[in-house]
Amino acid sequence: MDTTEKMAAAMTVERILVGAAAIAAPGPLLTTFGAPAELNNPALRYTTRLFGIRNVALGLQVWGARNDPDRLRELAGQNAAVELTDMVAGSALLVGETPLRGPAVAVMATSISVATGFLVLRKLAGRG
């Protein structure tokens, strides 16, 4: 397995594990990200599950493209864009007083690191 395949596998694992956790246990995941107990309600858990489904689908796409450098490069760029969009959405929660400030910061921090991982993968796939 070369470096690009290893990186694709690592990013796939990240996507699928986080997504599976969001689907299977949205309440504990929300708590882990710092959501206050009073906001851990059915609507937020449903939204968290949708996030999980998105992550699993994105991860499976990356895995399926791991041996196709052109498709992998495209998907890595799209995944980075998704993460950066999540970061922008999270930044909206930093304005004013909100109980979701802590979770927003956590999401933004993870979005930066995951986006960076996908940008590295994009660069690696472009060398193929």
Helix-strand layout with pairing:
Elements: H1 3-24, H2 26-32, H3 42-64, H4 69-91, H5 101-126
Explained architecture:
With 128 residues, the protein is an all-alpha fold. It has one domain. It contains 5 helices and no strands. α1 (3-24) crosses α2 and α4 (69-91) runs antiparallel to α5. The mean pLDDT is 93.
Task: Give short descriptive properties of this protein.
79% helix; mainly alpha; 128 residues
Offer a quick outline of the entry.
The protein is mainly alpha-helical. It has one domain. The chain is 79% helix and 0% strand.
Low-confidence stretches: none
Strand content: under 5%
Number of domains: 1
Write the H/E string, N to C: HHHHH
Approximate shape:
elongated
Overall mean pLDDT stands at 93
Distance between the termini: 13 Å
> Could you give the count of β-strands?
0
H/I helix tally: 5
Helix vs. strand class: mainly alpha
Helix content: over 70%
Largest sheet: none
